[in-house]
Structure formats: structure tokens, C-alpha cells
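Milestone M4 deliverable, item 7.
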Amino acid sequence: MKRIVTIRPAPGDRATVERAAHQGLKVETYPLFSAGPVPWSVPEPVDFDAVLLGSANALRHGGAGLAALTGLPALCVGQTTAMAAEHAGFDVVATGARGMQSLLPHAKARQMNRLLRLSGEAHVPLDLPEGIAVDTRITYTVSAHPIDAELAEMLADGALILLHSGQAARHFAQECGRLGLEKDRIALACLAPRIADMAGTGWADCHHASSPDDSALLELARQMCQGGL
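Output delivered:
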């Protein structure tokens, strides 16, 4: 079986490693990113009907200002974000399985027309339905780091990389190009189709999970390592 590697930032990397162990897989972590808070202004909750959350990082780095917003219902991307939102005190009313765009019909059906999006600096633009307004507040930033010699040596021998975001896909592809690594020795397991598209071509193998959650991604990695795809 190929060596399986996650490059996501802490503490998400450790969560992936632990979940993989429960699924009978060994995943190694070489974070190429680190997340940290940025100053942001907390708006008046009365101006909004709900909060849009695409990542647990928005909560992890949101700071004390989040407490003023917990009276608003939350619409979350993925179970991990939903669990973090509940832990922070939000009432989660919808969990989308296909990205933040998939949450907008839930908001419209509930007549939640004024949405507050808590996000990172790098975020996917939304195609807003008529009558829906979104105010985006940036609560965190993610910094990218170069591939070091240890990871480069591993990649040269062949590995399967787990990609959790489009930003990760783009940066990883750029780093492989910068170092002249042979992409046809590296396989990619991506959380969503958009991520696979952003990784580009030329890889030994590249597939996306059946749903955007860690369990599905790890099951995909298992199948790819066993030649089942």
C-alpha cells in the first residue's frame, strides 16, 4: 500500500490521522499550511437571520466575538463544522454535503434572507439566489509553507496525498512543479470535484470522494491504494 499523507493544517491533520486509524489506515502528516486569527469586526446580530459556516477554522479562530452571534441559527458545511458550531453554542439548522452553495436553498426555504458568512481569506464565491444577501466577515487566514526535504524524498518514492481544499491543491501542485517532482509518481485523493480540478493533470491518479467528509475521503484513499479504482 502506498504511503498516505495529509498536508492540512493542525489540528485538522491530527483529526484525519486519528479517523484513519479507526478505519484501519495509516496516514502520515506533513502540514503545508498553518491557520491563524485575523482581527474582525463583529456585526449586530439583529441585522441577520442566520450564520453561514464553511470551516471549523472560522470558529476556532473567531475569538470572543463569536459569543455575540450564537443566538443566530447556523448553516454549516460538513459534520466537522457542524460539531464545532454546536460546541461554540450555535443551533445548527442545516448541514450541507456539497459545499456552501448547497446551503443557500435551505436558507431560502426557511426565509433566512440576510446571512452572515464567517470565512477565511481564501473562500469560494457564491451564486446568490434572488432575495438572499450575504455579508462576509474574515476571521482567519491560512499561510502556505514549502515542501521540505523529507516530504520531497517521500514524494519521489511515490505517495498518495489527501487534499482537503482548493487552496491545498493549487499550492501542492505548484510546489511539485517548483521542485521538479515527478507527478506521475504521486496520486491524489480529493475531498470534492472542484479540488480535483484545481490540482490539474499529470498525476499518477486523481479522484474525488463520494461526499465531502473525511470518512469518505479515507475510504477513497483505501480503494486507490488497493487498486479498486
